[in-house]
Specification:
This protein is mainly beta. The chain has helices at about 5-10, 50-60, 115-120, 290-295, 305-315, and strands at about 10-20, 30-35, 40-45, 60-70, 80-85, 90-95, 110, 125-140, 150-155, 160-170, 180-190, 190-195, 205, 220-235, 240-245, 250-255, 260-265, 270-280, 285-290, 300, 320-325, 325-330, 340, 360, 370. The protein has three domains: about 5-100, Nucleic acid-binding proteins (OB fold (Dihydrolipoamide Acetyltransferase, E2P), Beta Barrel), CATH 2.40.50.140; about 110-205, Nucleic acid-binding proteins (OB fold (Dihydrolipoamide Acetyltransferase, E2P)); about 220-350, no CATH class.
C-alpha cells in the first residue's frame, strides 16, 4: 500500500461550538471553535458554507467538522488551528451535550502592557491605553488579499511597561501623545510578543495617563561610504495591489487583482532593497532600505528605473546613516540630492534583493503554513 501523504495523515474530525464567525474575506472566512480543552481558530475555504456557520453560531448548535486539516498554531493560547477545505464537511447536532461558554466570544479586554507581557496564555485581541514614544520604521507590507499597505512600527509605553506596535495604513498619530487603541492583535512568535492593528481597530486620542515608562529604541549612527546597492522596484495599483512588472511607458497597465486597466500615471512605484556600507574602520556591512528613506536620499524621477536608483546611490558621497538593527531609518548630510534620469545601461548584472512581506494567504484547501517574514517584530 502506498504511503499516505503528510496532508492525508493530518485530516481529522473535530467538534465543538462556533463563535466569532467573520464576514467572508474574498475566498475564505474564519471562526473560533470552542471544544473540550480550549478553543481553535477555524479557517474556512468554502465561502458558500458561511450561512451554515453563521446559523450554527446563532443557535449555539454543537457542530462536527469532518475531514479537516489540523496544524500547530503560532498562538500560545491555541494548540492547533483547523483548516476547513473544499473536501471538508460540517454537520450540526441539536442535542447540546456541553454548555456554551460565553467567555470565549467576549470582546477584547483592556490590559496594561506589563500584565499582557507576563501572561502565560495571551488573548488574541486586547484594548490598550499607550503613549507613542517613537516612530521606529515606515515601510510597505503585503497583506492576505495581495494589497500592499503602509505599515508603521512604533515604540509605545504605558505606566507599567513598553513594547512595539505595528500600525497598518495611514493614521493620524502624533509622537508623544496618549491613545486608546482597541482590537489590537496579539501574537507570540519565538517567545516574543508582538502587537498589530486589525481591520476592527480604532485609535482615539486621550488625555495623559501619567508618566509613561521610558522606552529606548536601539539605534546606531555611522559615517560610511556606499560601495554597493541592490534596489528592487514594485508597481502598486490605486487599490494598493502589487502588479506584475511592466513598462510604465505603456498608456495603460493591467492589475490582475482588480481586473482593471489603469492609466500609467495612476500607478505608484515602490522601491526597496539593500546597500553595502563601508565604515570608516574598513568594515563592510549590508543594511536594508525602504522607499521612504530612498526618496529622502535621492530625487526619484517618475520614469526612473532600478538601474537609475542604483547608480545614484553609488554616486553619493560619504553619508551619516542611522540604523535600527539592520534597517536604515535615516540618511543625513546630503549636500545636494542626486537628480535621477533614465540611463541606458548599468554595467554588470544586478540580482533582485529579497522583498519583506506580511504574508498570510488562503490556499484553497491545500495544507499551508501561515508565515510572518519580518525585518522587525510586528502582524
Amino acid at each position: 500500500m502506498a504511503e499516505e501523504s503528510p496532508a492525508k495523515k493530518l485530516r481529522k474530525r473535530v467538534e465543538g461550538f462556533l463563535c466569532d464567525v467573520s464576514p467572508v474575506k474574498d475566498v475564505y472566512f474564519d471562526a473560533v471553535l470552542q471544544h473540550e480543552g480550549g478553543k481553535s481558530k477555524v479557517v474556512v475555504f468554502r465561502p458558500e458554507d458561511h450561512v451554515r456557520f453563521h446559523r450554527a453560531e446563532k443557535t449555539r448548535s454543537l457542530v462536527t467538522l469532518e475531514d479537516v486539516v489540523l496544524q500547530p498554531s503560532t498562538e500560545s493560547s491555541r494548540k492547533m488551528d483547523v483548516f476547513y477545505t473544499h473536501s471538508s464537511k460540517m454537520s450540526c447536532a441539536r442535542d447540546l451535550r456541553q454548555a456554551f461558554n460565553d467567555s470565549f466570544s467576549a470582546g477584547p479586554q483592556a490590559v496594561q502592557l506589563s500584565e499582557l507581557l507576563d501572561m502565560h496564555t495571551k488573548p488574541s485581541r486586547v484594548n490598550i491605553n499607550v503613549k507613542i514614544i517613537q516612530e521606529v520604521q515606515r515601510r510597505k507590507g503585503e497583506v492576505w488579499d495581495g494589497q500592499n499597505l503602509l505599515r508603521t512600527e512604533y515604540a509605545v509605553a504605558d505606566t507599567t511597561s513598553c513594547t512595539s506596535l505595528t500600525v497598518w495604513c495611514e493614521h493620524s498619530i502624533t509622537v508623544g501623545e496618549w491613545y486608546n487603541i482597541t482590537h489590537i492583535s496579539v501574537r507570540e512568535i519565538r517567545g516574543k510578543t508582538s502587537l498589530s492593528t486589525t481591520k476592527d481597530t480604532h485609535i482615539v486620542s486621550i488625555p495623559s495617563q501619567d508618566t509613561a515608562v521610558a522606552a529606548q529604541v536601539p539605534a546606531e549612527t555611522i559615517k560610511c561610504d556606499i560601495i554597493g546597492a541592490n534596489i528592487k522596484n514594485v508597481l502598486i495599483c490605486p487599490c494598493k495591489h502589487k502588479m506584475k512588472s511592466m513598462a510604465l511607458s505603456s498608456p495603460t497597465l493591467y492589475c490582475i487583482s482588480c481586473n482593471t486597466h489603469y492609466k500609467s500615471t495612476a500607478i505608484i512605484m515602490h522601491f526597496s532593497g539593500h546597500l553595502d556600507l563601508k565604515r570608516e574602520t574598513g568594515d563592510v556591512m549590508k543594511a536594508k532600505i525602504e522607499d521612504e528613506v530612498i526618496r529622502s536620499a535621492v530625487t526619484v524621477h517618475p520614469t526612473a528605473s532600478q538601474k537609475d536608483i542604483i547608480k545614484s546611490f553609488i554616486a553619493l558621497p560619504a553619508m551619516q546613516i542611522t540604523m535600527h538593527k539592520d534597517v536604515i531609518v535615516k540618511m543625513e548630510d546630503v549636500t545636494q540630492k542626486t537628480e535621477i534620469t533614465p540611463e541606458d545601461e548599468l554595467p554588470g548584472k544586478v540580482e533582485h534583493g529579497e522583498e519583506s512581506k506580511f504574508y498570510s494567504p488562503p490556499d484553497y484547501g491545500i495544507l499551508f503554513n501561515s508565515q510572518v517574514r519580518k525585518r522587525k517584530s510586528p502582524d
